[in-house]
Amino acid sequence: MSLAESRPQQDCPARGRPRSEAVERAILEGAMKLLEDGVPLADLSIERIARTAGVGKATIYRRWSDKEDLFVDVLRAAEPEDPELPGTSVRDDFVMLLESQRRRGLATRSSAILHNVYAQMKSSPKIWAAYHATVVAPRRRIGREVLRRGLENGELRRDVDIDLLHDMLVGPMLVRSLLRPDAPLEEGLAEQIVDTVLEGLRPVSSPGV
Which of 4, 27, 41, 68 is least buried, going by the fewest C-beta atoms within 10 A? Predict the structure, then answer.
């Protein structure tokens, strides 16, 4: 999938001339290059991005209303694709989700652009809100749906709070990825987290059954 293809089409209504995917990709990659070089978000002007991408400012403004709008799409393009879940069990699905999160954490540690992006993102409420709505919230919905299915098919106790359980499963990997950059993100960590959390959440048979 190209950088241009990674952007939801409904977010970008057609205006003016037909858009060139190559031009759009050049603009996104130009912004990424500046971020990778350590340019702060405050200094990432439309003019500077246009020069780096080799286009005019008007070309950018035909596609994005402002710098923050463009930056949200840079974030989307920098994110790896979400995994396709097997759908076989709560355990299998969450191992897949957390393994994707583990790999994302490793990429953030090793990638100058991702490190710069995440460090600066929360300084802009607009960017953080858009990122949360387009990246974080959809992933949370997927995880909650997996847990809801587990409640319905008897994999989990009926008294489990889905939101709390989701946080218990996702939280440890987030802590290691974002708050403890020195903590290992070794292979098998996803399985270890999921198995540890789910151990106490399986239904218990009634006495005498």
Answer: 68
